[in-house]
Amino acid sequence: MQIGFVGLGIMGRPMVLNLLRGGYRVHVWSRRAESMTPLIEAGAIGCGSAAEVAASCEIVISMVADAPDVEQVALGERGVVEGARPGLLFIDMSTIAPSAARRIALRLEEYGVEMLDAPVSGGETGAINAALTIMAGGSQAAFDKALPVLQCLGKKVTHVGANGAGQVAKACNQILTGAGVLMVAEALNFARASGVEPAKVREAMLGGSAHSRVLENHGQRMLERNFNPGFKAWMHRKDLKIVLDEAHRLGVMSPVAAITAQMFNALVGGGDGERDSVAMLQLLERMSGVDSE
Amino acid sequence: MQIGFVGLGIMGRPMVLNLLRGGYRVHVWSRRAESMTPLIEAGAIGCGSAAEVAASCEIVISMVADAPDVEQVALGERGVVEGARPGLLFIDMSTIAPSAARRIALRLEEYGVEMLDAPVSGGETGAINAALTIMAGGSQAAFDKALPVLQCLGKKVTHVGANGAGQVAKACNQILTGAGVLMVAEALNFARASGVEPAKVREAMLGGSAHSRVLENHGQRMLERNFNPGFKAWMHRKDLKIVLDEAHRLGVMSPVAAITAQMFNALVGGGDGERDSVAMLQLLERMSGVDSE
């Protein structure tokens, strides 16, 4: 099967390699031509545009930064619709607003292109190890067609519902991971300010009902004071903006997401946008006069 | 070994039964004499006061509601110090403020009684199944002496640090579980408001970095709309008050704990104090006009 892939960044690159390992013929395009070179060397076919990618493929995947990029790739000049044969399946794996995903899906329908929103969780490590969590929204037929391809990229693939449902699940996921990072940072900062060893407190909590993957993984990195990404603070902030925009649109109260977004504003505003979101611990330390040295 | 136990409520009762099963001679006292009857039938020895309990024992455990109750049991009229022989170990397993635990420990020292603060996580089920998570603060000698007894009550016993450290760990635990319940409720409410099946969203998230025990257990109860305690909302609210009082005293910023406490105020203020904290979902639904039927 011929698969197209547009967006060859930190996530896209290892995903293309996994598709090649899975035996697929992969046609790639990136705005920055140099991103294609190592993938072409690994066996991918370089193209001159998203339209050219689409012309050769049954499935085109995009993995880009935000909704305008997805719109450009799908519907813009030299975009997917300009090359697509009827029946093409477009899978957007970027994290964008559910409403944007639904809007793009509707527009694509006019061209006979079906869309699946299939955002991921698991970050660069998950992308490299084909261990992503994938949350898909779209028709059952589209999901069934996509499943073998998605299973080549992730360990857990869930069909959440209709178009946009994948992005809704991802938004929920980002509430839990964003607020998770903040509350673990709060707890460890509270422990240190109380004169108690944070590592011991984390150890005590790991066995019980406070256990979470964030306490396990992000908590460990906080203790090691390893603030390298991982998942950059500005990206988590962007995802929380999606949650709050949707919450506003729907009139849904989401108080923890709101305060978490404010803390990410402070983190990014304070110059830590390129660091991992676990740098939240240092922000709380500064704000509480806690000496971590 | 002779062990005393004061406070025979939902938690204390099954804990005494586990100590009896462990082969200990258990001396019990409760303000409400009728609480003692089933335990006496099970082999415990009923007493007329905490002082009388202390007179026969090497270790006295208390499991009561709040700091004033612990103070009364330990230092009040006919309290532990009035019966204690020197070298007695007093283990308070209630959840109280770290500063109160330190203060009571200091007062007990004057009477030659050593104290361990050893609050628990795991609720009634954990108490019944001897599967509590126990977080202990006190000297190494006190911890070593208590350990076999604590292992009879819980699965995971951690020596966190000096007096008060157990309560600090419990406070951190309650940040994570309280905010955890709120953020899971937020995510499931957001999903439903977005027209997506909350069960599917939870399923999609469980495999990835958003995984937590709260999403697993409390999330499941929210989906089943089972709001029976479990852990009552007013108790979680009390625990968050401890966190925020300490945060205030220390000048430590804890934004998620603060907003969570406000939401528990609304939950308890709205008449749901006796229900499980997962009733938070219904509060959010009401506040967002989400129809869950």
TrEMBL record, chains A, B:
Active site: residue positions: K170
Pfam family, one: NAD_binding_2
Record has DNA-binding as a keyword: no
Xref: InterPro entries: 3-OH-isobutyrate_DH-rel_CS, 6-PGluconate_DH-like_C_sf, 6PGD_dom2, 6PGDH_NADP-bd, HIBADH-like_NADP-bd, HIBADH-related, NAD(P)-bd_dom_sf
Record Gene3D superfamilies: N-(1-d-carboxylethyl)-l-norvaline Dehydrogenase, domain 2 (1.10.1040.10), NAD(P)-binding Rossmann-like Domain (3.40.50.720)
Molecular functions per Gene Ontology: NAD binding; NADP binding; oxidoreductase activity
Keywords from the named record: NAD, Oxidoreductase
GO biological process: organic acid catabolic process
Domain 6-phosphogluconate dehydrogenase NADP-binding: 2-161
Family: Belongs to the HIBADH-related family.
Protein name: 2-hydroxy-3-oxopropionate reductase
Annotated organism of origin: Formivibrio citricus
